[in-house]
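Lecture 7 notes: from sequence to structure.

We start with a single chain of 146 residues. Read the sequence below before looking at the structure.
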Amino acid sequence: MPGTEDYRRTHVMTASPMELILMLYDEAIRSLTTAEKALAVTGDDPGRFEAINNALLHAQDVITELSVSLDMERGGEIAVNLQRLYDFMVHHLAEANAKKALQPVKDVREMLNDLREAWEQVTKKELPRTETAAPPQRKDNVLFSG
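Now the structure, written as tokens:
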């Protein structure tokens, strides 16, 4: 019987580029939520620090994937601004990870939630298979790690 991972892989492989972008947003938000929960717990448990580190690194990988999927030629100023915002987010999360600070993680998660909402609205207006961003091409798919 196929497992959840098989279903997820099939869903990713058959998704439109726009749906893939939404999945990347969802994955980054999930990782940041995991990091927030671990950051909210007090104590010096090494497992907690490892969980925070792993979740934040995974979120950074996903945001980087969003950045490299931008079509800079067709996206114009919007793509340039998104790339700057993604770069800011990755840097902000690196600092949060180094300091084990909760607020920057919350800030980035809120930004991603807003961007995801906006992207979802665009997706609803577009035809199902219209390409506005290049689909992620890396072999180490961030949707299957972390």
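The CA atoms of residues 69 and 132 lie 10 Å apart. Keep this in mind for problem set 3.
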